[in-house]
Structure formats: C-alpha cells, structure tokens
UniProtKB/TrEMBL annotation:
<dbReference type="InterPro" id="IPR023393">
    <property type="entry name" value="START-like_dom_sf"/>
</dbReference>
<dbReference type="Pfam" id="PF10604">
    <property type="entry name" value="Polyketide_cyc2"/>
</dbReference>
<dbReference type="InterPro" id="IPR019587">
    <property type="entry name" value="Polyketide_cyclase/dehydratase"/>
</dbReference>
<protein>
    <submittedName>
        <fullName>SRPBCC family protein</fullName>
    </submittedName>
</protein>
C-alpha cells in the first residue's frame, strides 16, 4: 500500500475550519476554481455515512462514498466509487482538523491506496501536490474572505 500526505496550518481555530470542511458536499462552495458542481446522491445527508457525492472536476465526474465522519475527532474518510477516476485501488482518503493551542489549526489530508508498483511514486506525489495541497489552499482562501 502507498500513502500520500499533505498538511498545513490554518490561521483559524479548528471549530471554524471544521464547520466548513465537514460538509461532504461543500467542495463547490470552497473550491469553485476546480469543482463546478456537487451533489449528494439518493437524497442522503452530506454527513451520513454511506452518502455518495458526485462532483465535476474539469470535464470529469468523480463519485466518492463517505466511510466515516467524526465531529469529536474533526475528521472524515471516504473512498472512490466505481469506476475510480484514477488507476488506483483501495483508495481511502482522510481529512483531519486538529486544534493548535494558539487558536490556529493543523489540517491533514492523506490517502492510502494501491496501484501498479512502477506508478506508486507518481500517484503518491500527484495526490499530495495536485489534489490535497490545492484543495486545502482553496479552503484557506475561502475561510479568509
């Protein structure tokens, strides 16, 4: 299994960051440059385990299933629905918000997955640099408005 990871510090308290980030259907709200639309399928709530979000990323539609959401831990995990948008399997991503004592927060975005061994380095770098870093940058920008 491979692991990709990105973290950053927000100049906002963890409760404020989590209030926005916990919305599993909120990507189009705080990352509008990348995500043009998003909806939860089958009338489920955005914080309901098993909910599937479908969103437009460029010309692609990506579907992800919420596996866990904890307000206590300020985290959620999700997986790709079939067909996966990238040539990886067993993809489980987690976003976590942790308070820092001075009113800031530490935000981590990580994933474990498997893929063809020769492509492991590519996808590990890709998820950190091309997905997690810009997503958290957009969330930071959204909270700073």
């Amino acid at each position: 299994m491979a692991r990709s990871y990105y973290s950053t510090v927000f100049e906002h308290d963890a409760a404020a960051v989590w209030a926005v980030a916990r919305d599993f259907n909120g990507l189009a709200t705080w990352w509008p440059a990348a995500v043009s639309e998003s909806h939860i399928e089958d009338g489920k709530a955005a914080d309901q385990v098993g909910a599937v979000r479908a969103f437009r990323l460029g010309e692609s539609t990506i579907r992800e299933r919420l596996l866990a959401l904890s307000d206590l831990d300020r985290s959620y995990s999700y997986e790709f629905c079939d067909p996966a948008p990238f040539p990886v399997v067993d993809y489980v991503a987690t976003l976590r918000v942790t308070p820092v004592s001075d009113g800031r927060s530490f935000v981590e975005y990580s994933v474990v997955f498997d893929c063809v061994g020769a492509e492991r380095g590519h996808w590990t770098s890709f998820f950190a640099a091309e997905v997690f870093e810009p997503a958290l940058g957009a969330l930071k920008d959204h909270l700073s408005r």
